[in-house]
Amino acid sequence: MDRLTIACVYRPGNGFTDEYVYRLREGTAKHCHVPHRFVVLTNERFEDFETIKLDRDIPGWWNKLALFRANQFVGQVAYFDLDTMIVGD
User: pTM score, two decimals?
Assistant: First the structure.
């Protein structure tokens, strides 16, 4: 069985900063008790975890459409908005 992929989409602006990505990753690392990988769809550079480049220059939340590109993920994917707080399992 493939690992669960936990994904978010980050494009700076509208009040969102790198800090939102790090906090979401910390919450999932602390409370997700199954093997998983944390992936950020972004054009920003992060060295602490896996990123996937956004392939279009579109504004704001429309970038979530990139989650549905064919053959991008294997297995189950859980998506979280950056303003989600993970507080339990």
Answer: 0.90
User: How many whole angstroms separate alpha carbon 63 and alpha carbon 48?
Assistant: 22
Strand partners, 15: none
DSSP per-residue letters across 7-65: EEEE-SBTTB-HHHHHHHHHHHHHH--S-EEEEEEESS--SSSEEE---S---GGGGGG
d(CA 33, CA 17): 27
Beta bridge partners of 6: 38, 78
Contact in structure between 3 and 37 (CB atoms under 8 Å): yes
Instruction: Answer yes or no: are the C-beta atoms of 5 and 39 closer than 8 Å.
Output: yes
- pLDDT, tens digit only, all 89 positions of the chain: 578 999 999 999 889 999 999 999 999 999 999 999 999 999 999 998 899 999 888 888 899 999 999 999 999 999 999 999 999 88
52: its two tokens:
């996937």
